[in-house]
Design a protein that fits this description.
By secondary structure, the chain is mostly helical. The chain contains 26 helices and no strands.
Length: 686
């Protein structure tokens, strides 16, 4: 029998019969899957790998999402092909529609990106390509459709709160100087927990605090409440210790907004007025930040009236990145540069002063603003789709919260605080696997709880079932597609994780060289499409060439692997620079003139891709200096010190060039400048 969703007796259907699909079991599996995402993804790390944090987290998340999609596919095809048991009502105000549109825009942007492979898989360090972005959106849609009861949401909130306690404890231990693992990270803060950096940990805590409050309000059991209360206190302490200012801004603004909303509901207008004033002040701050982003304020700051020229560190770096990012949006406004391709595009407009704020070793691969990042990754179409998704999401959460009372209202406020706080945080930061997973899970659960009962479930309990051969064909099709999807999930998630583990073992300098090469070759074998593994293998052979009296074969293999890495990322200037260094070593070690010219060509290509990167000009000038081309060396080194006046090594090479040209006064000036910056920065001259 099939019910049309209205009152009255159901009408028998001729040629159809009810089918039990094990709805209770599959529902438990689906709920268990997103609980695993919420708890295990923030905790999971791979200490043996190179990418310790995000890669294992995303491998688990993407595998679970594919498994959920396979389950959905099997249930739909094994029933009657995409027939729903309830009336479906989906419109433009449904955030699931905009999630689907955003996924289509991401896919289109990937097809026209600077590097299709990079856009599909993401960069080696971030893994935020099309595959991951679609997994986030699909996870959101699944929860928004299938998480229908408050009990499910409360279990999810409790799981997130309990899962955050080990992270909080570990972060506090790190602050106290207790850590059994020596993490390889550029973050100077000790509080990174299992997230990777202190600012990312702060972003995670921004979401865990309101969730802990909701869990504390809705749970029963004295010891459980004590554990949650201690976890909440620890998360607040750790949030302060992370020194994550964007996270502080997010939680402060959201707390004011939520408190003002609750006071307004209770009619306490006298108490709400101060919060309205504070909210207006916060709004003015945000508008001022975006005016700076748009270079409106900067145009009138030539005399330093606003003090922008005195900014240093992270604030100055963000303003510099935002201003450069705006230039890139104008180049490809419709679909952007493709997901994951920001770093390739940013090299063209790299601001030289950025090295003063964040150093030379840090690669800029994010815009540090979610709106700019969407416009750069997917163009204005992606920005509009993302903005519509967030607006409809917040509107849906607000409407749902207003209909609830008691514990349900506390849960609704917590979900709204998570979404609002994280979005404010993303105005000055960016997502990683931990924060994105929690955000999309909580947002999807909030939409699922807020939607009306007339929305369709993913898997209706009773659906019409075709009979005979047609039913068999549906099941065979569903089985074949399910097996294929699971095989793809394993190949695209387990293989890179194993490869990265071998790469991490290959990087260990204490191991014998032969073992390191064998592990690097296994990394290439498991995931051959990653150029970083090719580059690592090439550098290992270059290391061998330096230690052997007959380096010809090792140098040949070095160039072979580095050239393969360049072919896989032809727009990456760092890959060209590695190849140029290897060719330069071959040229001087074997007195090979052709290798020298090839090294010059590789450096010229790298400089063409990144014309304002001072280190490339300095390395190219040093190569020309060692090759006896003094005039060309002088021009390149002068360009290097003009872009980065603090580079002591470039000044030393420039002093040698001036000396070779017979210019003693310039030689003395360059040498004294090199000595000055060596004393100030601790940088060695050569």
């Amino acid at each position: 029998m099939v019910s049309d969703g209205m009152s009255g007796p159901s009408v028998p259907q001729v040629g159809a019969r009810p089918l039990k699909l094990g709805a209770a079991g599959t529902a438990r599996f689906r709920e268990g899957s997103w609980l695993v995402v919420a708890v295990a993804v923030p905790l999971l790390v791979n200490p043996l790998g190179v990418q310790v944090f995000d890669l294992p987290k995303l491998a688990l998340l993407r595998t679970i999402v594919v498994a959920l999609a396979v389950l959905l596919l099997w249930e739909r095809f094994s029933s009657s092909g995409f027939v729903l048991g309830h009336r479906v009502r989906i419109g433009w105000s449904d955030p699931r529609v905009w999630a689907a549109i955003l996924g289509v825009v991401y896919s289109a942007a990937s097809l026209v990106s600077l590097d299709i492979g990079l856009s599909l898989w993401g960069s080696y360090s971030r893994q935020e390509g099309l595959y991951t972005l679609l997994a986030y959106l699909l996870l959101f849609v699944i929860l928004a459709t299938d998480c229908r009861r408050q009990a499910q949401v409360e279990r999810l909130i409790l799981a997130i709160s309990l899962g955050s306690i080990p992270i909080i404890v570990y972060g506090l231990l790190q602050v106290a100087g207790i850590d059994l693992i020596h993490w390889q990270t550029l973050d100077k803060s000790r509080a990174i927990a299992t997230v990777g950096r202190s600012n990312f940990l702060g972003s995670y805590l921004v979401m865990s605090v309101p969730i802990a409050v909701a869990a504390l309000a809705s749970c029963r059991g004295r010891w459980l409440r004590v554990a949650l209360a201690l976890g909440l206190a620890g998360s607040l302490c750790l949030l302060v210790l992370t020194d994550a200012r964007s996270a502080w801004t997010g939680i402060s603004v959201t707390a004011m907004a939520m408190l003002a909303m609750e006071l307004r509901r209770r009619g306490r207008y006298g108490r709400i007025l101060p919060y309205i004033v504070l909210g207006c002040v916060a709004l003015v701050v945000f508008i001022a930040a975006y005016l700076v982003t748009l270079q409106v304020v900067g145009r009138f700051d030539a005399g330093g009236a606003f003090g922008l020229s005195s900014l240093t560190g992270s604030p100055a770096a963000r303003l510099t990145i935002w201003q450069a990012s705006l230039q890139l949006i104008a180049e490809r406004p419709l679909l952007g540069f493709g997901p994951g391709s920001f770093s390739l595009a940013f090299h063209h407009v790299f601001p030289p002063q950025l090295v003063f704020y964040q150093g030379r070793a840090l690669v800029t691969d994010r815009a540090h603003d979610v709106l700019l990042q969407q416009a750069l990754d997917a163009g204005l179409l992606g920005l509009v789709a993302y903005a519509a998704l967030m607006v409809t999401l917040v509107a849906k959460l607000v409407r749902g919260m207003r209909r609830r009372q008691g514990h349900g209202r506390v849960v609704g406020l917590a979900i709204l605080a998570v979404v609002g706080g994280h979005l404010v945080d993303l105005l000055f930061s960016f997502d990683v696997a931990t924060t994105a997973a929690i955000f999309w899970v909580v947002a999807g659960a909030g939409v699922g709880l807020s939607r009306e009962a007339t929305y369709a479930s993913l898997c209706p309990d009773t659906v019409p079932m075709p009979l005979g051969n047609k039913r068999v064909r549906w099941r065979i099709t569903a089985l074949a597609l399910s097996i294929l999807a699971l095989a793809v999930a394993v190949a695209t998630n387990l293989a890179p994780l194993i490869a990265d583990t071998y790469a991490g073992l290959g990087f260990r300098p204490g191991s014998p060289w032969a073992d390191r090469v064998a592990r690097a070759e296994l990394a290439v074998g498991f995931w051959p499409i990653e150029p970083a593994y090719r580059a690592e293998l090439g550098l290992l052979f270059l290391e061998r060439a330096r230690d052997t009296p007959t380096p010809e074969r090792a140098l040949e293999l070095t160039e072979q692997h580095l050239a393969t890495a360049v072919a896989m990322r032809p727009l990456d200037p760092s890959a060209w620079a590695l190849l140029a260094d290897a060719r330069a070593y071959r040229a001087f070690r074997l007195n090979d003139g052709r290798a020298f010219e090839a090294a010059v060509a590789a450096y010229e290509r790298a400089i063409e891709l990144a014309p304002t990167t001072a280190t490339l000009h300095a390395a190219y000038g040093a190569l020309e200096l060692m090759g006896g081309r003094i005039e060309r060396a002088e021009a390149s080194l002068e360009r290097a010190v003009a872009l980065d006046t603090t580079d002591a090594r470039a000044w030393r090479y420039l002093a040698e060039a001036y000396s070779a040209l017979g210019r003693p006064r310039d030689t003395a000036f360059a040498l004294s400048t090199a000595l000055y910056w060596e004393a100030r920065t601790g940088q060695s001259g050569k």
